[in-house]
Each structure stands twice: as C-alpha cells, then as structure tokens.
Amino acid sequence: MWCSHRFLFASALRSGLKRLKQFPAPPDRPAFALAGILTLALGIGGNTTVFSVVNAVILRPLPYPESDRLVSVQSRDIRGTPHPTDLSYPTFFDFRAENNVFEHIVSYRDSEFTLTGTDQPIHLRGQIVSSDLFPMLHVQPALGRGFLPREEDAAERAVILSHELWRGRLGGDPAIVGTTLMIDGQPHTVVGVAPPRFEFPITQDPAQMWTTVARDAASGTVTPVTKQRGARMLNAMARLKPGVSIEQAQARMDAIAASLSARYPDSNKNQPGTYVRPEIDHLIGDARWPLFILLAAVGVVLVVACANIANLLLAHAEERAREFTVRAAIGAGRGRIVRQFITESLTLSAIGCAAGLAVAAWSLRLFRALPVPRVGETVIDGRVLAFSLALAVVTSVLFGFAPALRAASTKFSGGLKDGSRTSTRGSDRLRHGLCVAQVALGLVLVSGAGLLIGSFLHLVRRDLGFRPEGLLTFSINLPDKGYAGPKQLDFHARLLDQLRSLPGVTSSALAMPLPLTGNQMSVAFNIQQRPAPPSERPRANMAIVTPGFFRTAGVPVLEAGILSSGMMRRARRS
Are the C-beta atoms of residues 215 and 111 closer than 8 Å to each other? Predict the structure, then answer.
C-alpha cells in the first residue's frame, strides 16, 4: 500500500511539474507562472524576514546560561504616573545587602574611556560594573578571572577587556593578564579577557571593556557619586535564586524600597517600590508589539497573495475540465484528481518558498540597521527555515484548497463537448468571494500603510528646533588626571579656538551631554517663593554648553540673556 501511494505521488509530482510550465494557462502565457512564483516569493519572503527579526529579538533567549532567571531591577518613582527610574549607588548597595531572593545583583552604567600607550590613543566604549558581573551571568572569562569584591574600593584599578579588543587592537597577547594599561591617564591592571562574542549589556554598540565601581568611588575632591543617594544613574540586573519566582522577588524588593523611603526621605521618599521583570522584557522594551503587528501585516499580505493565486488556479481548473473528463473516463477517481491539484500547489509553494528565502536573505541587511536591540543577531537559522517550510505548506493548502474542492464536487460528464460551458454557478461564487476577500484585506493594508505614511511625512516636515544642515558633532573624553578644574576649561577654550580657525567652520561650541544621543543630565531646583524639601523639589533636564551653542546649532532664542564668552573667561579665572 505504501509503495502504491508513493507511486501515485511521484506520478502526480511529474504531472505537476509539467503543468507548472503552463500554469495557469496554455504556453502562450508563461508570464502567469512567473507572476504566481513572484507573488509567493514576496509573500513568503516578507513573512520570513519579519519572523527572523522576531525570532532574534523576542523568541531567542539571552546568550547567557539559564537566562530565564535573569531579571531587571529598577526603582518605582511615584511622582505623576508611576514609572521606572535608575538607581543610585547607595540604593543599589542597600538592595545588594538586604535582599535574600537573588544569587547576585549587579549594577552597570555606560562610560567612555581613552586608552593610551599604544601607537595612538584609542577611544573605547565600556561599562562601569559591580564586582560580581561574571558570576551573575554564569560566564567564565576566556583568560584570567572576573572581578574581586575588594576591587570596588576607590584605590583599585582593575579592567577586563573584550575578546575583540584584545584580539584586534592589542594583538591577542596571551600574557596580557597582569599587565598594566593606561586608561584615562591612570594605570589599570588587566585581570581578564571576556569570551568571544560576549556582550554585556546587549546593545547595538557593544562594550569593549569593563571596570569596577572603583572609578566612580574615586572622584577627586567632590563627594563621590557612590555616596550620593540622589545621583540616580545605574541600571541593575540580578539572577534569581533557584525556586524564587519574580513575584516573590518583587515583594521582597518592594519591602526594601519602602524601608529606604522611610529611612532616607530626602532622597528616597518618591521611590517606595521597585520594578522587577524578566531581563528580556527590559531589553526589548517597546519593540515587542510593533514587531508582532508588522508580522501580522505581512501575514495579511500573504493571505491576499494566496487568494490571488487561488483565483488563477480556479480559472486554470475550468480550462482543464476536458483533461479531467478524459481522466475520469479512463478510470481516474476524484481522489486522484484532487491529489493532482494538491501536488501542483505544493510544487508551486516549494519554488515560491525557495525564492522567498532568497528575498529574505537580501532584505535582512536592511532590517539589521534598525535601532532595535539584538536585531544585529538576525539570521536565517533552523527555526526560521522551519517557519518558511510551514508557510509553504500552509500557503499550498490555502490557494490549492479552492480548486481541489471544485474538482471534487464537479461532474465531469459533458466536458468533452465542444463549446460546453465549464464554469458553474458555484465556481463563480467562489471566485467572486475570493475577489471580495482580496479587496477587503487590501483595503485594510492600504489604510494602515496610508496612516503610517502620513505619520512619517508629519515627522519629516516637523520643525526640529535646530538647523541640521552642515552641523557636525564628535565626542571627546578628558581623563580626570591632568585635566581638573581650570586646566579642563583651558583645554576646551583652545579646542574651540582651533576649530574656529579651520577653513569652512563658521562657529563651534561644546555641549554636555551631546544632543540627540539619548544621554541626559538632570538637576533638582528650588523656587524661592515656594521652597520644598529635597525629596519634593522639581527636577529638569540640563545641558552644560559654551557660548555660541545656540548660534552653532541654529536654535532660536526667544528671550535675551544669551551666554557670553565673558562668562567662560570668568569661569577659567575662578
């Protein structure tokens, strides 16, 4: 019996391949076959592309052992609508000391470093982290070790290098552990090298080195940020203890936050709770639902494509009525004729799937440029291939079901008569129904696309508040050693003078933070007529700029009182 079914399938496949050359009409119209394949290629390719992104960003676990136990920890600020906010060092230290639900909890924040002592200075992106980063992630360095708790002390200078920095810029010296590197003018001891492709945190611009909170603990004459409860700048990630649920961790951390709020009302009054959630949710943020909506949209496109091809196949089936009448006359049953339609549909879907994978491989290069976490990891892996094959089977059923159903319910007698009418009222209703479905779904897609295009045009035409034409930016990071106080201001003044002397430069200015980078500084302030306790003072985002900033950026000023160069000269003398 199995051999018989295999023979029938092989026979149907050979017939289907022959028919595909004529699909969906006689050989004088081969463009229809190409149209069907291209329609499927675009439909399956679009779905495969978007699913690849969803797979990389949402479905694939984080690249750490037992990543389902990794959670993000943030304070809950109750001013206005409750919202997550960063931690201060003292709050983090209290969370670390008082919790009993985490194996480890780690703080981290972005920073920039300058490596000297090489052929020329190297600007590096890095992270300032607490000492148990690698134990928390269950990751072992490729060389050396992780940080020790004592290396959080202000006098310590320890650093772990990324594998790519060690292999590329530093020559891959296997004896680098224990050597000293000059980073921001300070000697740092290399204690380890991270494994290949290790990322923490996962961003589009990965960190190249990690150092400990000792960097923030040693901040010169001012009170170090490690002792400022109001300086909220830290992210935190933790690993749950075995058997501890997120709900249990949330309850315990809320209790600690409430205690801190009562003990330190000046700084923690408005943060009486926390947010504890899976790290993958914190990483993805708001990207989850837009990706699912996009996947649904390309799914609708594929359904429209299937309806279109089903209509073509129905028309083709009516033109083949004489062929099926002959087959029925010589003994072919309805089951075999239906099997013929299904085989032809599967063959068409297989070719469309192969073309769709080629479309997806090309279009993924465009998606990798999106500002979405983990989108750079997008590849066509086994899961994506399985999804594409499943799409091929489903689409073959969707567009092959209608003609197969018509073939199963059609009386073939009379099909040999010249000029006989092969179209029936039932087939006409089915084709009209498919056309209505195509139009309805097409209107949904066109309406959605119109709204998106309208929003995009609104953003393009919106006044940015500054003039971007001819505006160039760059970042510079001065080490604390040798550039403290007036020396730093002198350097900035000389830098601006040299920039203004360059041909083609009409004006220049400095700003911290650089606009549109996502970095922010905030400051609490008091209103003289309405003084408030420290915990209730309003806060505002702040930028430190030099005279000429507004003119350089093309920002219109509504009121007078513009910064003057005299202010900067007085600051240099003070």
Answer: yes
* DSSP sequence for 326-362: HHHHTT--HHHHHHHHHHHHHHHHHHHHHHHHHHHHH
Report residue 377: phi and psi, to 5°.
Answer: -85, 5
Element (H, E) at 415: none
Residues 6+ apart with CB under 8 A from 18: none
**Is 223 inside a domain boundary?**
yes
226-269 per-position pLDDT tens digit: 998 888 889 999 999 999 999 999 999 999 999 999 999 888 88
Say yes or no: 175 and 233 in one domain. Answer: yes
Q: Exposed (0-12), middle (13-18) or buried (19+): which is 458, by Cβ within 10 Å? A: exposed
Question: H or E segment at 50?
Answer: helix 31-54
Tokens of 489: 């201001």
| Domain assignment of residue 391, yes or no | yes
* 259 and 291 co-located in one domain: no
Residue 213 lies inside a defined structural domain of this protein: yes
Task: Check if the beta carbon of residue 78 is closer than 8 Å to that of residue 70.
Answer: no
Question: Which residues, 6+ apart, have CB-to-CB distance to 545 below 8 Å?
Answer: 509, 510, 511, 512, 563
Look at the block and give the residue holding tokens 């050597």.
179
- pTM greater than the 0.90 cutoff: no
| Number of neighbours of residue 259 by Cβ within 10 angstroms | 14
